[in-house]
Specification:
about 100 residues; alpha+beta; 3 helices; about 20% strand; elongated
């Protein structure tokens, strides 16, 4: 079983729609996502993708792209919530200005 990494969400969606399995998403220090996929023939599919020979069902491709986007948005929202929860508590009571 091949192991493949890409930061290209369209390539990731193509590989997913062609039988690949998403095994993880990680972020670098610039907040760029890397998709890790496993499956058969991923390097051949990558070659087809770059050479213009890739064929895929467009509905499955759209669903795969939406799935990856949903995962990214969910991860972003969780990270934001965690960041807010890590902030020190502040006095949230406001006095009226007179």
């Amino acid at each position: 079983m091949a192991h493949f990494e890409t930061t290209d969400i369209f390539k990731g969606a193509f590989l997913l729609s062609s039988g690949g399995n998403l095994s993880g998403i990680s972020f670098n220090d610039r907040h760029i996502a890397t998709f890790t996929l496993t499956g058969k023939n991923l390097h051949k599919l990558d070659s087809d993708y770059h050479s213009g020979l890739a064929l895929v069902n467009p509905v499955i491709l759209r669903n795969s792209l939406n799935h990856l986007r949903d995962l990214l948005f969910d991860m972003r929202d969780r990270r934001r919530r965690n960041t807010r929860n890590d902030r020190p508590a502040t006095n949230r009571h406001h006095q009226a200005v007179r």
